[in-house]
Amino acid sequence: MDLLRHLRIFVAVAEELHFGRAAERLGTAQPPVSQAVRGLEKELGTELFDRSRRRTALTAAGTVLLDEARELLAREDRLRAVARRAADGGLGTLRAGLPPGTSAAVISALLAACAADSPPLRVDLREATTGEQLRSLASGGLDVGLVHRPVDGAGLRFGPETAFDLGVVLPRTSPRARHAEVTLAELSGLDLLLFPRADAPGWYDRLLESCRAAGFVPGEVRHASSPEFLLALVAAGHGVAFDQGHAARKEPRVAWRPLAGRPLVRRIGGAWPVGPSAHPSAARFAELAAGVLAVDRSGARRNDAAEPPDGPPRPWSVVFG
């Protein structure tokens, strides 16, 4: 039996929960798909699908096998990708993912650190959300990524993480913008503007849990991927957002304020695949990235201290007040 082929067919049927649609997805007819699944069930000695109803459903054994099959197939993809790259001399290139919105200063400092640490290594930086990076790490499309934690650690190793305190972004006309800092409970009932959950599911869930625990229950959670679009919505009075403050300080119609007690902490760190398919420079890249991010965080804190929120009126307050 070609186990990997049968597992690919099984995964397609499990994800579609329909033999006909799975066959279309695989570019084949339905009978071979059904035969492959029955052959796999015979080989494993258990039924993987419940066919007693009008719709196809996974059995308990099928549900367990689905996660294992996905991991095994992802490892095969990584193994093939590494073998191809080794044959082409491509291990001299490190494909690294960075979160959207990474500043130019961080990117420049990271590339400089990599060049100083290992001059022959070529670093290919790619912008991708945490969700996209995790999929690419599993399939062999990336060697290492900087991801927002927490994430599912199956099949991954992790480097040191850097923590960033988040503040709240408010319309400049909001009464809360007059305070030196804001509590999460003061925001209760306001709409929250947040990145889409698919971008970083673990961090998204952790953030909302922390808000609710501190007394902030949003009236509505609205999503925005672009930082500029998010700031525009805050400025228009459509909600509040959480940010480290870099982008907010450049927009005169909004105000950034620290959160009392620092209840929201964004954690970023390197992640790379486990096993022989891992790039030999992945762990070192994660260490260098943590160092660069730590310097960036320290600089941001100095800027926060140097610019008190209750300073003299700014020129734009006349225009937008």
Structure report:
With 321 residues, this protein is α/β, with parallel strands linked by helices. The chain folds into three domains: 3-84, Winged helix-like DNA-binding domain superfamily/Winged helix DNA-binding domain (Arc Repressor Mutant, subunit A), CATH 1.10.10; 89-163 and 267-301, D-Maltodextrin-Binding Protein, domain 2 (3-Layer(aba) Sandwich), CATH 3.40.190.10; 167-263, D-Maltodextrin-Binding Protein, domain 2. It is 44% helix and 19% strand. The chain contains ten helices and twelve strands. A five-stranded mixed beta sheet has the order 4-3-5-12-6, sandwiched between helices. Strands 10-7-11 form a three-stranded antiparallel beta sheet. β3, α5 and β4 (122-127) form a beta-alpha-beta unit. α2 packs across α3 (30-44) and α5 crosses α9. It is globular, with a radius of gyration of 24 Å.
**Average pLDDT figure:** 89
What oligomeric state is this?
Answer: single chain
Which CATH class of the largest domain is shown?
Alpha Beta
CATH architecture of the largest domain: 3-Layer(aba) Sandwich
- For the terminal residues, how far apart are their CA atoms? 73 Å
Task: Describe the structure concisely.
44% of the residues lie in helices and 19% in strands.
Features:
D-Maltodextrin-Binding Protein, domain 2, single chain, 3 domains, 3-stranded antiparallel beta sheet, 44% helix, alpha/beta, Arc Repressor Mutant, subunit A
